Sequence to fold (1152 residues):
Amino acid sequence: MTLRRTATAAVALAALMAAAPAWAEKLTIGLSSEATAVDPHFHNLTPNNMIAAHVYDALIGQDEKQRLIPGLATAWKPIDDTTWEFTLRKGVTFHDGTPFTADDVVCTWERAPNVPNSPSSFGTYTKGKTVEKIDDYTIHVKTDKPYPLVPNDISTIYMVSSESGCGASTEEFNDLSAAHGTGPFIMTAYEPGSVISLKRNDKYWGDKPQWDEVDLKPIKSAPSRVAALLAGDVDMIDGVPTTDIETLKKRDDLTLSQGSSNRVIYLHMDQFRENSPHVTAKDGGEIKNPLLDQRVRLAISKAINRNAIVDRVMEGVAIPAGQLLPDGFFGVSDNLDVVEYDPKGAKALLEEAGVGDGFKMTIHGPNDRYINDAKIAEAIGQMLTRIGIETAVETMPRSVYFKRASRGGEGDLPEFSFILVGWGAGSGEASSPLKSLIHSYDKDRGFGASNRGRHSDPEIDTLIEDALATVDDAKRQDMLAKATEMAMENVGIIPLHYQVNTWAAKKGITYAARTDEHTRAAKVVKE
Amino acid sequence: MTDGTLPIPKAQSPFRRFASEFFESWIARVALFTLLAIIVLALAAPWITPQDPYDLAQVDVLDGRLSPGSEAFAGYTMWLGSDGAGRDLYSAILYGLRISLAVGVASGVIALIIGSLIGLFAAYAGGRIETIIMRLVDLQLSFPAALTALILVAILGKGIDKIIIALVLVQWAYYARTVRGSALVERRKEYIEAATCLGLSHGRIVMRHIMPNCLAPLIVVGTVQTAHAIALEATLSFLGVGLPQTEPSLGVLIANGYEYMLSGRYWISVFPGLALLLTIVSINLVGDRLRDVLNPRLSK
Amino acid sequence: MTVFVIRRLLQAAIVVLLMSMIVFFGVNVVGDPVDMLVSPEADQAEIARVIRDFGLDRPMHEQYWYFLKGAASGDLGNSFIFGQPALKLILHHMPATLELAFTALLMAILIGIPLGLYAGLYPDRGSSKAIMAGSIFGFSLPTFWVGLMLIMIFAVWLGWLPATGRGETATFLGIEASLFTRDGLSHLILPALNLALLKISLVIRLTRAGAREAISQDYIKFARAKGLGTGRIVGVHLMKNIMIPVVTVLGLEFGSLIAFSVVTETIFAWPGMGKLLIEAILQLDRPIVVAYLMIIVLLFVVINLVVDILYSLLDPRVRLGEQGA
Fold:
């Protein structure tokens, strides 16, 4: 018996070695971000979720374009307006050998929003939904009111085992004693700040990764990360800085993969104060906030040369934006084009709005959050100054910026008048930016949480709310697209461009760029 | 003031002797000349540069990342190329020099005044007060300047005024210690006792007799500290807690160019780097020579 | 001696208290950690929950009081970001930093003293002048710039050494360090050199000054006259004289090495506590910043004590306990 197994293993090994060169079995990736813990429910933040995806599975997965695909659930459907039925995958085991069943889903649902000390919990996705076990492989998710995004929300919750995971603390996940998922990799080491080591889960239910072992190393400084790749310390890196792409492309020992992300970079304008703190007349005196006028906002949009920003600042690695999400995402409008660069038209509009002589304004932005953020702010400052809006540029670290931008002013209102921000649609569809950026600020109902310009249009609000209660996909798609069109018509915000993410790897290693910016070792392919 | 404030009152022309000794070394000559040239260039920046890099109307992103010698959209030649935002590097470096020098000199002078006063006070007061002040100075000195400055700037926030405050706070102790040391030596000397007996006021004794004798070591410490402050500012800016990016000092320029290093656009950080290096090295060389000349124990 | 130590510790306690207060209140003025923590998708209710859970809604003095109470029992609070005890996180990252600083110190001594001695003994030779000029550059070059150049040259162009990270560790004499493996050493060289450069220059200058001063003194002249060999004069008489300032300064500079490792660790992705600190500062993780400072102050007190004791051993004229005058 033992002998036979060894023999089989030897044959398998021989086959494997014939199929691929021996060196390629370990993959080392340099990552631009670092997870704050390896507990999949500790911190709802992209770097954490990305690491979790290596070891854990959710009921529903997201493919590289964030389209929903079967995960630990093989099928799901709404059975009435407020109930969704999920059929669970059979024969899946956790890394510790226990089988995956509905009990695990129920207890994970309980754990996910309630991790102690969580700096950002998964309550955002679990609230308003209850999970009910029907049998071992069927569950029902019930919602308070009709809610179409149940599958999207479900796709963010990684399943842990009712035996070892649900009762475990974050420390137990970090020391790996509870780190048993169903995912493609088993975690073998977690050295914060240094490395996360993984080995292949040979019993994985899906496509098994090509790598026996994977090391994920956080290297946050971008030039250091590129240097590490060039020096051969790592096989692949994410977050390739735009400045280096051109040079890396020329090298024949590297391959690059690029893809647009779900992140739009845009401008918020103060639309709720008669006197905006950072807008003054040219002589420094007070003026009525010109940003309240749709024509002024449109003028600003027209004054911005998006192609120049993409070309010069982003070195060609970005896509000019005309709405909130790039083409191909659910809920985007087909009728919207990128606003054209038209400084003459912009000046005419300013004239029409009665501020033809221009005014003074400050653009505020972060300098360590988005790709080339400070440089973009500077470029915009230059362009607006040319049409007569004398624009000062002030950028600051995000630790200072976001508080002030959200509630740094009097009465906990946003402090700035004109800001540069970005938004990544975590759910991979248009309701995410519409709900947070365009809908009126409504603290009690959780709308407009990041609406820092306080744009407000009751008609759009109703449309967004209706869409969020429409389970029918086709109808919802139209509603979201319509809401986006109205918001763009109002110039509620000014979209600039969609970020494009770039990965670089040694020749022979390829990766399909993901819109959610995740780097997933399981999808890294060697030729 | 009268010639009573000169460092060595007895010689006919102590300054000339000092100068001729200083210029004996050709390194010192070159360093001083370079330093003066840098200062003049920095001061004259608005009149000798084609672009005001802080005026957004003059900076065009379309000029971004041009290599040295390229022609800008506005028609002038960018001899040192341009950075990512389209700033002409030659202009940006000279304007950056202004900021770096201003930060270094301003923080140095303020720290020198505050530190000297504290040091003098300690030496003159003596007793418990002196012990407490000097313990404070020791404590401050035992704590690395870079770390203190980092924490201070993190607390104070970005901005030229804030970075100057932080640099003053990390530098004053050096001056206090220096002044107190020299003052202690002088205080014990007979001529001070004589002056006291003559009934001269404390202020007069301190300003006219003790202070001049502290001048030599102060000058040496001052030059070294100024160089140090400039480097520290650059480091803080590099770490992202120093000066804002829109009005770049040399440190910020280098930090901005840092990301272009691997892409072959060396000029964005190499030229500001060279300017910074030249500035600091020349200040240090001058300081070094001053030390040799002003410290009789080593020179002869 | 005991009185001296107790007094030092007391002073340290006051400094720690003051520091913690300044930083505690200071960091709060800068920004709000909540914005750094919550997912952008979080709604207002979730933001309110985090503020409440972390006690950030309470008045500052109350938060500080809770912190002091915890600190008294050795609990410096949980990191906002990592959710783990700040003290534990820092201690976890400390060995890597100490290893780096220690190696840099060693480099400073091994490279700095011989070069400085040479320059001091033969001040007129061209090579001595080159050494001194080099040392000027050594402390004029900004650390971060040198770090990048080292990576560019040795890792990217020549490919001799790895560019980033810490190598494998091994345990030797109960100490786990990457010093003891080949891989570890190869990772260590560049960052340690980067960190050491400033100190090498400093040691060269100190040693040279010490040597020049000593050489003109009577006892050396006397020893020479007696016909002692140069080796013995340098090895015994000179070294003893030079070592006093060098030891003092290096003791103090060890602290500054730890501080400067913030820069080096950032560039070389070295998983030490300097990198932890700069990230905590950038993300307003107050418990880590406060705890780091408290630990550093303690570390410095210990270093200073050790330096003072060493000093008294090297120079019998110095007696511990005498302060001020």
About this structure: The radius of gyration of chain A is 25 Å. Residues 242 and 314 of chain A are 6 Å apart (CA to CA). The longest helix of chain A spans residues 2-19.
